[in-house]
UniProtKB/TrEMBL annotation:
The keyword Membrane applies. It is found in: Membrane. InterPro entries: Beta-barrel_OMP (IPR027385), OMP-like (IPR051692), OMP/PagP_B-barrel (IPR011250). SUPFAM superfamilies: OMPA-like (SSF56925). One of its GO terms (cellular component) is membrane. It holds the Pfam family OMP_b-brl. Residues 9-204 form the Outer membrane protein beta-barrel domain. This is Porin family protein. Keywords: Membrane, Signal.
Length: 204
């Protein structure tokens, strides 16, 4: 009789323990991940003209996270582009054209997060960003005619915060705000960037 009761107790404890183990696995934010992101992008050159331009940022992110209890540590890298473009004409000569466009943006950094629920991670991030800005100038009426292009790669720092939500064991969504600053440039411009992005990704 005692043997039968032991078997019943073992089966019951296994039935209770299995869902608990599965739930623990569901709460894991550890491992490698890849995601696509898109959102709002604003660049402000902070000059005397206070020129700000809005657009859309888009790209991808990869990273790796380590979870210890309710705390998550991670590293990540990101490549994005932007739709921001500013056009002017008759800048220096009649009929000339000037375009300044935001190019690729590279980012590498780390993040620290805390579980706010079984499927929700709140986190802060910091790292290095390198953004490219492309300037095209043409003046067909000047002598000689001019057609110039310059690419400026500006390095700076980024801070951000966001939330990540598990949709399944492998799939997640996120929303994030980040601020980037590229420091004072030789031309007196001190560019900065504000972005709000959303993303969807997978863990593997």
């Amino acid at each position: 009789m005692r043997t039968k009761l032991s078997i019943v107790a073992l089966v019951a404890s296994s039935a209770v323990g299995a869902p608990a183990f599965a739930q623990s696995q569901d709460q894991s934010f550890a491992g490698s991940h890849a995601e696509v992101i898109a959102g709002w992008d604003r660049v402000n050159d902070k000059s005397s003209f206070d020129a700000s331009r809005d657009g859309v940022t888009f790209g991808g992110n990869i990273g790796y996270d380590i979870q210890r209890g309710s705390t998550v540590f991670g590293v990540e890298g990101e490549v994005t582009g932007s739709s921001i473009s500013d056009r002017s004409s008759n800048v220096l000569n009649a009929g000339d054209r000037l375009r300044v466009k935001a190019g690729r943006d590279l980012y590498v950094g780390g993040r620290l997060g805390f579980l706010a629920g079984p499927n929700t991670l709140l986190y802060a991030k910091a790292g290095y960003t390198n953004a490219q800005f492309i300037t095209d100038y043409s003046s067909p009426n000047s002598t000689p005619a001019l057609d110039l292009r310059a690419r400026d790669n500006l390095g700076g720092w980024r801070l951000g915060a966001g939330a990540e939500f598990k949709l399944t064991n492998q799939v997640f969504a996120k929303a994030e705000y980040r601020y980037s600053n590229y420091g004072s440039q030789a031309n007196g411009v001190d560019p900065e960037r504000h972005q709000i992005v959303t993303g969807i990704g997978v863990r593997f």
